[in-house]
Specification:
Length: about 350
């Protein structure tokens, strides 16, 4: 059986160096070591320093390692909201953060848009006393990207609120000025090309102070994964629980590989690959763009409507070992979703485009 190539939007193809790093990790017995050992601490320190360099994360921002971005939603709510939050909701993942906040009993409001768009609102639509504003830099379910300039506008209008950005399928491809946001987070199974099971949470001192205030006011901020506890352990390059040290090791090595390649090169390639996919959708007789506004189309997840059941295209590609994603939720059989993450070379995307162009109903 020939090896498949995964263009699915997460989990996706492993970064091309991961196989060799896994072999090295097994020789070093990384999956067997204690998560609080000196060896493990070295990996935590290495990946933290690499992420700072790769993504331009400044001093005063702390990096923690949890189980997933999904868990981080809950930790943000527990630690950074006392009463009120606002969520920009324009897809399955941005909507889910709002759902979590509501189910946990907070006064959460949602500003919505149709799928394939982003919310169009005036700043007075957000209460001035909201404590947290959440949004997805890249909505994986719909292929919409939220322009960073609008994120910076939110920061200017609501300096007291914690601005939390979901970067799961965006980092490190999308460049963002971290000084304009308070928290960002991602899981590693998309752009970083790793096995699922690790979430990275970036917070500034404002988030830490908010958690400490909640604690002082007698409110619950959780237990072992509370921000003060995460910070105390991170200062020793240690986790608060038995973390997936193998994934931490692999993230350290992959970020080193990305630094060696150069983040500017990675981002230029992302623009090129996205342009190829956009052009393919424009020209294909059986596909149309789901995201109508060009400037809102993701550089890492291309979503297209299919004039008939999208399973036909997916199955035809699968025969050639090329695996793409279907639509999300109710759009499962009506769309295709294609990831163009850093591990997907220009040549791979060119090959995929050529194969899709051969398919017609």
């Amino acid at each position: 059986m020939s090896k498949k190539i995964f263009f699915t939007p997460g989990p996706s193809a492993l970064y091309f160096t991961v196989e060799s790093h896994i072999k090295r990790a097994l020789k070093l017995q990384v999956p067997e070591i204690n998560h609080r050992s000196k060896q493990a601490a070295g990996y935590f320190q290495e990946v933290t320093e690499n992420l700072r360099a790769l993504m331009g994360i400044p001093k005063g921002y702390h990096i923690f390692y949890l189980s997933s971005a999904t868990e981080i939603w809950e930790r943000l709510i527990q630690n950074c909201i006392q009463e009120k939050s606002t969520h920009l909701s324009y897809g399955a993942f941005s909507n889910r953060f709002y759902d979590f906040s509501t189910k946990l009993g907070y006064n959460a409001s949602s500003i919505n848009s149709a799928l394939g768009e982003i919310p169009d609102f005036k700043m007075n639509a957000i209460d001035s006393d909201t404590e947290l504003i959440s949004l997805a830099l890249n909505e994986t379910s719909s292929g919409v990207t939220y322009p960073v300039e609008r994120i910076y506008d939110l920061n200017q209008h609501f300096p007291d609120a914690i601005l939390a950005v979901d970067g799961v399928s965006a980092f490190p491809v999308i460049d963002i000025d971290f000084s304009q946001i308070d928290s960002a987070y991602f899981s590693v199974q998309k752009c970083f090309g790793l096995p699922a099971g690790l979430g990275v949470w970036i917070v500034n001192d404002k988030c830490i102070a908010k958690a400490e205030k909640k604690l002082k006011d007698g409110q619950n901020i959780g237990t072992y994964q509370s921000l003060p506890n995460l910070l105390k352990n991170a200062q020793k390059y240690q986790p608060t629980y038995t973390t997936n040290v193998l994934d931490v090791y692999l993230l350290a090595k992959v970020t080193a590989d990305m630094l060696e390649k150069g983040i500017d090169v990675i981002r230029r390639e992302a623009t090129y690959k996205s342009s190829l996919l956009q052009h393919m959708v424009n020209e294909h007789p059986d596909l149309t763009h789901f995201v109508n506004q060009t400037e809102l189309r993701s550089k890492t997840v291309t979503v297209a409507n299919s004039i008939s059941d999208s399973d036909y295209i997916i199955n035809e590609l699968s025969k050639k070992g090329l695996v793409i994603g279907n639509g999300y939720g109710d759009l499962k059989s009506k769309q295709i979703r294609i990831a163009s993450f850093p591990t997907h070379s220009k040549e791979l995307i060119e090959m995929l485009v050529d194969e899709i162009n051969k398919i017609s109903y």
